[in-house]
Amino acid sequence: MPKTEDVWTEQEMQDLRNTYDRLVWEDLENKFGRPKDAIRAKANRMGLTRGRVRSWSEEEDAQLTGEFLEISPREAERKYGRSWVAISQHARKIGLASRSEIWTEQEIEFLEKNYAAMGFDEV
């Protein structure tokens, strides 16, 4: 249930300091029970920023390598605390195939020609 008052507890403010630049917006909204605009406003008043570039650890690289093509974008954002764009860009940087690269030219051409007429189950 969203909070309507603008009063933040000391614990909430500490949690915001610890999570603001690491969690995706949906997780922040769920954690604090407040809309994105309220969280952003409080973070701005506290001098917090998002978007700092964090280096990828060797452990994160290994995990990403093992699951990149199987993990959903939303799950990856939650797990790594980064946007899907940042995750995809890093995956390319470390040599992982993008999801679009797992299709051959012939497969893509077939889908483009036939998907509308055949539908998902037939394709």
Element layout with pairings:
Elements lengths: L9 H10 L5 H8 L3 H10 L12 H10 L5 H8 L3 H10 L11 H14 L5
Which key phrases capture this entry?
57% helix, 123 residues, 0% strand, mainly alpha
Strand content: under 5%
Beta strand count: 0
Number of helical stretches of at least 4 residues: 7
Distance between the termini: 43 Å
Give the helices and strands as they follow along the chain.
Answer: HHHHHHH
Mean pLDDT: 84
Morphology: elongated
Determine the fraction of residues in helical runs and give it as a percent range.
Answer: 55-70%
- Given as residue ranges, the uncertain stretches (5+ residues, pLDDT < 50) are none
If you had to describe this structure to a student in words, what would you say it looks like?
Helices cover 57% and strands 0% of the residues. It has 123 residues and is mainly alpha-helical. It has 2 domains: 1-52; 55-123, no CATH class. The model has no long low-confidence stretch (mean pLDDT 84).
Brief summary of the model shown:
The protein is mainly alpha-helical.
